[in-house]
């Protein structure tokens, strides 16, 4: 999977974070670390390394969760 990633985000009932906050924070931290490493090595950093959007799906039951887990695990083999 050279051009994308998959993850399963688990929220508890007491959490009030929006998925967009979690994804945005993840993208920001990853890019910040990568950018720092590029600059420290003497390279120029691009303004971004992420697509603007993302795809989300609500997993509603155990069977669907297992299906998504299998999809994520098998995804590299489809490349």
Topology, element by element:
Layout: H1 19-40, H2 62-74
Report a brief summary of the structure.
The protein has 79 residues and is mainly alpha-helical. The protein is built from two helices and no strands.
List keywords for this structure.
mainly alpha
3D structure, described in words:
With 79 residues, the protein is mainly α. It has one domain. It has 2 helices and no strands. The longest helix is centred in the middle third of the chain and has 22 residues, at 19-40. The radius of gyration is 16 Å and the shape is flat.
**Mean pLDDT, rounded to whole units?**
89
What is the alpha-carbon Rg in Å?
16 Å
Strand content: under 5%
Spell out the helices and strands N to C. HH
- The termini sit apart by 7 Å
Oligomer: single chain
């Amino acid at each position: 999977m050279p051009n994308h990633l998959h993850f399963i985000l688990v929220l508890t009932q007491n959490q009030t974070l929006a998925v967009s906050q979690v994804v945005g924070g993840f993208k920001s931290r990853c890019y910040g670390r990568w950018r720092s490493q590029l600059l420290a090595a003497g390279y120029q950093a691009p303004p971004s390394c992420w697509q603007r959007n993302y795809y989300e799906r609500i997993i509603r039951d155990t069977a669907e969760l297992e299906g998504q887990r299998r999809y994520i695990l098998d995804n590299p083999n489809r490349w």
